[in-house]
What we know:
Helix content of chain B is 37%, strand content 25%. By secondary structure, chain B is α/β, with parallel strands linked by helices.
Amino acid sequence: MDHMTSSSRTQWISGITLIVILFVLPVFLNEFGRTGEYWIWVSTEMIIMALFAMSLNLILGFGGMVSFGHAAFFGVGAYTVALLTKKADLPLFLALAAAPFTAAITAAIVGWFCVRLLGLYFAILTLAFGQLLYMIVFQWYTFTGGDDGILGIPRPEILGPTNFYWFCLVLFLICFFVMKMIVSSSFGLSIKTIRENMERAKFIGINVRRYQLLNFIIAGAFAGLAGGMLAELNRFAQPDFLHWSKSAEPILASLVGGMYSLAGPAIGSTVLIFLKIFLQQIHPSMVELWAIVLGAAILVVVLFAPSGLVGLYQNIYKKFQS
Amino acid sequence: MATPILSIENLSKSFEGNQIFSNVSFSVDQGELSAIIGPNGAGKTTLFNLITGALVPDEGKIIFQGRNIVGMEPFDIVRLGMARAFQRTNIFPKMTVLENIVITIITRLKGNLRFVKPWNSSRKIERQAFGILESVGLADKAHQLSGTLAHGNQKRLDIGVALALEPKLLLLDEPVAGMSPDERWETVELIKELWNEMSITMVFIEHDMDIVFGISQKVRVLCYKSLLAQGPPSEISANKQVIEAYLGEEV
Amino acid sequence: MTWQLFIFMLINGLCQGMLLFIIASGLSLVFGVLRVINFAHGSLYMIGAFLAYSLSTLLSGESLLGFLILLLVIPPAIAIIGFVLEVTLFRRVYREEHLLQLLLTYALVLILDDSVRVIWGGDPRSVTRPDLLAGSVDVMGMALPSYNVFILVIGPLIAFGMWFLLYRTRTGNVIRAAVSFPDTLGALGVNVSWVMTSTFMLGCWLAGLGGVLTAALSNIDLGIGMEKIIECFAVVVIGGLGSVGGALLGSLIIGTGLTFFQLPFGRWALVFPYALMALVLVIRPWGLFGKPER
């Protein structure tokens, strides 16, 4: 037990250090003019995509449900912000607050159908619903702007690049701690129990579908918030936000970072975005090869390290301990 | 006379045209410790699946504590006070032994929808869990991942999980299957002890006749799609039909 | 709608459906035996189409002989690619969880699609139809493109061929046994890994054939792989995963549905396959012809 408290103390210390660094980062980056501003933008994107990846992992890693339609809720959040600020002239903060709700409602409807199915069929049904929503957004010119998307989302003046970064960081941290609370609560344990053995879970009295649906809705809400934040960062929303290849991104991030921890997917997502930009910096033509590099990296992880970077780290850590 | 806790009335079930049961009826008295025996393929586990709601019978009633439970979901039936332990170990492997028990207690107390407090913050639940772990002899392994336990201990944990539901009726499907001879008798002793202490009604499926005739008050024989005989062990081991159909020359 | 227009659209829809069937039946067959949903099936189809384009520039495309060579060479080439993929990658994840299998095939999509872009670039391409199939045939006073009629002939031939293979040959018996009783196959004394490899190759052969036929039907570009794999998902989900007969039904429903809905709904017709797929999954998750798991 002593060992556990000491390791949780190191966790706290490193966590707080990381948070401090993240807060100070833009001040430091601002010293570098245009390049610095670019990196602030990139860091903001990393924070948002980390939130998106963590939201998926609530159902993927903790719930054991493979969804290939998670981008739908991300996209619904993005379009909520885009439409409310642009067409209803609502202030950004209200629009952002609405994003998780619209996403949760969508997730409730989609989830109600999907949690009836198991495993592979669940994955395909989420894919089908995701693509259905994508096609609707893609086609509905009068409402969503079709394949052009919605451009020119307004930005309040006080939210310059640095302030927006801080704003996103604070939102991210709030979400992180709320998710941490959820996964270590009785509900979180119930979800893990279902993941471990769905049949047995029924025979200890757990209403499996109900908790899976709830978890699906919670994950959708967080994804919606992330989508709203990204729409505001880019100042546009486009149908690609709902495409199934977007749904694959947080899955890959979870795979790379490790699915059985809260922070794993966030780390994975950050690593992947960084890798992409790093390649870009080496040589612009490397962007052409990004998908090949990413694909090869996934192959390596799938074949040799299915528990991801965090799992790898834990294995090495254990070896050092013994 | 004791009142039945469970009555099965005219139960029939078939799979893709194969009749498994036709018109099975019997009732289990409050507080009894009884066994179900029968040749392989007689449908013993299927019977448990029907009683616990995993399968829905084609016809018939299953009355548990005065209430027809046919068509109810397994998790609702569990909440009425019926628990089962499985033939093949059926636990939550990547969770610790303690977590296995705690989630069961939380579910029994309907605490699954608490989102704020950590699940391990309740000392009361933890004490209860350790109490159960002690009664099945796993207290010293509480923080081990349950998937890493030896087979015998996994089966004990499975029983522990069922006990954590504080059931009124406990169905045990071959509780000693796959155990070494020593482990078997230990587990049998455990079952008998639990039954003595907790006043639970227990029904178990078993192949080992020494165990069946050793501890049960009543034995039911499933054969030929129906209940062939039921009665105290002495009566059953002398029953001509049962000997011909099932026990053969061994007894 | 005049009846001529109706017939015209029906034939076009059936033609689209037949083409879809050729590709989707490969996906379905592979799932049935390997229990892996191969996201990369669409990429293999796309590679088939682009290889057909490259080879046709070397041959004189307009001759019937050239086109026949494409049909004879490209599908086996894709099957060989499939062989390599199965032996080096797929084989290693059959026992893993679904997620890892899906991710493996998704990684292949990323690699293969990007390779196509690097090799062929983003411009739309097409294969010139041979003279014999370039014109139109006169059916009941209507001029139908002879190439579409050709596909309408090829499709049923492939369907018949697959039926013959699956139900009238020993290999077919083994494959069907593998679909129905995956666990007991080893006990029958069958070389399971050989069955899996050859089924996968057959699936890839069909993807390649679909690629060649598409390349001469319409323009091909980098998006066709992604587009087709989702359509194939819709088909096999509607028909039932692993069922070739179901794939035929599903393909024809989607092909004709897309064509007919285009008239009243325009581009909204593209929503149809997804909506139908979601509907079928909700009502009959195992598909119209499939069997429930367990």
